[in-house]
Amino acid sequence: xxxxxxxxxxxxxxxxxxxxxxxxxxxxxxxxxxxxxxxxxxxxxxxxxxxxxxxxxxxxxxxxxxxxxxxxxxxxxxxxxxxxxxxxxxxxxxxxxxxxxxxxxxxxxxxxxxxxxxxxxxxxxxxxxxxxxxxxxxxxxxxxxxxxxxxxxxxxxxxxxxxxxxxxxxxxxxxxxxxxxxxxxxxxxxxxxxxxxxxxxxxxxxxxxxxxxxxxxxxxxxxxxxxxxxxxxxxxxxxxxxxxxxxxxxxxxxxxxxxxxxxxxxxxxxxxxxxxxxxxxxxxxxxxxxxxxxxxxxxxxxxxxxxxxxxxxxxxxxxxxxxxxxxxxxxxxxxxxxxxxxxxxxxxxxxxxxxxxxxxxxxxxxxxxxxxxxxxxxxxxxxxxxxxxxxxxxxxxxxxxxxxxxxxxxxxxxxxxxxxxxxxxxxxxxxxxxxxxxxxxxxxxxxxxxxxxxxxxxxxxxxxxxxxxxxxxxxxxxxxxxxxxxxxxxxxxxxxxxxxxxxxxxxxxxxxxxxxxxxxxxxxxxxxxxxxxxxxxxxxxxxxxxxxxxxxxxxxxxxxxxxxxxxxxxxxxxxxxxxxxxxxxxxxxxxxxxxxxxxxxxxxxxxxxxxxxxxxxxxxxxxxxxxxxxxxxxxxxxxxxxxxxxxxxxxxxxxxxxxxxxxxxxxxxxxxxxxxxxxxxxxxxxxxxxxxxxxxxxxxxxxxxxxxxxxxxxxxxxxxx
Length: 721
What we know:
11 helices, 32 strands
């Protein structure tokens, strides 16, 4: 036992002697005497030139090193410099295998990073180039070291303590000569104290970042309490308060403030994370959320809620230095809000109690997003929306400038309508309802829309609603599986009143009546010109009862009849409308042209018959209408229907640009009236012939009667004589 005791005493004595020797050496030896050797050693091992201008100090208890005024240059230019570096570690904590840093101070760091015109960074030239064999050997050695480190990983948890960390006046300059970009990090400060794994510690960070492309500056200040366990697989942030003041070209020179606040926690081993009371703001935009995440792989489970407080989009754009959104109604985009609950099974994000507010419009519903196949499902129901309020205001003289702008647009390059690759990747199932929609001054009620997309097939299975005492339904299919997408359109319109519809839509009041339409059309292409030229199909229509407004077809017919009667009309109050019954027809779609050969309508004493074409590309109408006289038309004596004009056709032509002067399209067709005169002449000849026949017949009958009477008279005379 005595031997063991003596051995222990000897070991302790040796340790004390070694410590004493080190302490005496550090007290006696001045490290500043070795500056030239240190500088030379760095220059021999690297391409850096080290300059130790300030004093070098060291201490034993605590074990520490202090450097002052140090600079390293690379190829004659400053690469890195610092004013002061102080690092102190408690000596006895090293003996106890629980290192504790008393102080770490870094002041005045200045680093210069530069990329040349060829894209090479100056930091890649710090170490001298080595021979290929040496590089291979070094790589192999590095891999062995990494393997050993990996084998050693997973041992006892790291345990260290830091009493104080201070970084001040640090700056990093980055210049990229190949792009002209320059980034500067300056006034970088870090303050932390009592850093211990398993416990919270305070952290404060400050910095300023500036760029030249674009010109942008941000001043940031972050304060929080951080925590990490000894295994470094669980982290927490609490009391986060981060403020970023930004300015520069992206914000039009205005100063914008962004803020973050709240708490966060993550466990890497259990794969869980959460945000608690987390808020984010940018100017007048404020977001808040509480969110739990389980699973960090491709099938996470989310639970929580997120909301964006009501804000003004116009104020937000102004605060961000962005151009304003000009709207017809200056009071819109002033109240926007969003809120939803978040949940769903693993790998699927479900939105519940979804509410979207846009001024006085509110949408409610639900939705989901499948992470595995990116499938999107939404069901939304809105109350009312006046889309016209959000359109750009019409500038003075805009109507006159429109044709020129259309020509300009046509002369420019035509782009694709649909992103085909995106459509092919879509997986959608969206149902949208809206109580009332006002668009292009049209009022549509009870809108229902159902859209699906899968494997390149985009379908609007239902688009229906009610408008102007009638209803409509439509469906559209776009087959985008090829580079020449195919479109199929079907639509049914029932008893839609045309007068208020056309008046509200285009301020056109030429037609009144309940319209019924059936559309079946198809086309192909991905540009407007191709869709128009490839269009094919049919549009059938009829109006049971209605009237033509701002034109009087009765007057036109009477003008022709008066010419036949060689008389003059005396009526002056013809009115400006023409009532009709059961107008119907079919339009054959052939590219940009609509052909009609069976237009018919019943007017008072007239049967309207017509055929013609509509050129959609030129907005041109070319129609020949015939007003066939089938009965009494008007009380004006000059318009009396005689046997000569009965069944004759009074010609009317409708030609011109229907987008410019719809009221002046139709007029009496004098060139075709010659054919009508032939018909009237034929009727007159037939009537004359009938008259002559009737006269001859009557004369013959008279002669026969006279002869019979004479014969009877002679016989009677003979009888009495």
